[in-house]
Each structure stands twice: as C-alpha cells, then as structure tokens.
Design goal:
By secondary structure, the protein is of the alpha+beta class. The protein has 2 helices and 7 strands; from the N terminus they run H-E-E-E-E-E-E-E-H.
Length: about 160
C-alpha cells in the first residue's frame, strides 16, 4: 500500500526542484534585504534566507507579499559579499505571523549560479560521507561550502 501511495504521490506531484539545495544556517538564518519595487515601499524589507540553490532560495519575513511579485534580494554573508538577485515569489506560506517565501531567480550571474551549484554538491558530498561514517569528512578550502560550514576542520 505504501508503495502505491508513494507512486501516486510522485505521479501527481513530481519533484519540482531542478537544482540541489544548500542550507545557509551557520548559526542562525542569514539576514537578507528584500525590495519590492511594484509595491512602492520606500524601505527595504528585512528577511532571512533558509536555503539556497542555483534556481532560487527560501526566504522568511514578517511582511506579507503577493505571489508572483518581482523582488530584488541583496545578501551579504560568507562567500557572498553584496550580491544582488532578481526573481519572483513563487509560493508563500503564512505561519503564526511570519511568511515563508519560495523565491525563484529570474536573473542571476552565471559565476554566482555555478558557485552555488558547487556549494550544494560539496555539501551533499560531505553529508554522504558523514552518513557513511567517515571520520575525516572535511577537505578544507577546496570545498565550496567551506565558508558556511560549521564544522571544526577547515584545512
């Protein structure tokens, strides 16, 4: 029965993600700045990024935004200094006064996109090595995820 349910769920709701995701939780969610020119709001909207992929990111904010609105996101964190993205809010979920936004890029620099892809691949490799019980999982500065990694080993 579980196999049938899983098959039916996959048949009707295929995986929408094209790009691997990488968490950006170093100690807390990383702060970002959101601008919504269509809403004519003068001040940037504060928000937090929960994960990042070459196709978009997950954002948390306390301001309700409409679906499909064009946004400009600025981030400044390890590995990404004063980087700007343009895109659209594709899905918005409200929970207890906060809003979780799925943001898809419409314009991203190819070098940044490639760096995010390498970060996600390196994060996944590290996670796989941990699951396999490998003790020395870190390969230091060769790792693109190194700047966000919370582990001790940074060879």
């Amino acid at each position: 029965r579980e196999t049938t349910m899983t098959y039916n769920r996959l048949k009707h709701h295929p995986e929408r993600r094209i790009h691997k995701r990488v968490p950006v939780l170093t100690s807390l969610l990383e702060p970002i700045t959101i601008k919504a020119p269509q809403l004519h709001i003068d001040k940037p909207i504060p928000g937090f990024m929960g994960n990042l992929s070459a196709g978009g990111m997950q954002i948390a904010t306390f301001v309700s935004l409409p679906v499909n609105i064009e946004l400009e996101i600025s981030i400044n964190m390890p590995g990404f200094h004063n980087v700007h993205f343009k895109g659209k809010a594709k899905r918005i979920h409200e929970k207890q006064g906060s809003f979780l936004i799925t943001f898809n890029f419409t314009n991203i620099n190819s070098e940044i996109r490639d760096h995010i892809t390498r970060m996600a691949e390196d994060f996944e490799m590290c996670l796989d090595r941990r699951i396999l019980g490998i003790i020395d999982v870190c390969y230091g500065h060769k790792c693109a995820y190194n700047t966000l990694c919370g582990e001790e080993c940074k060879k």
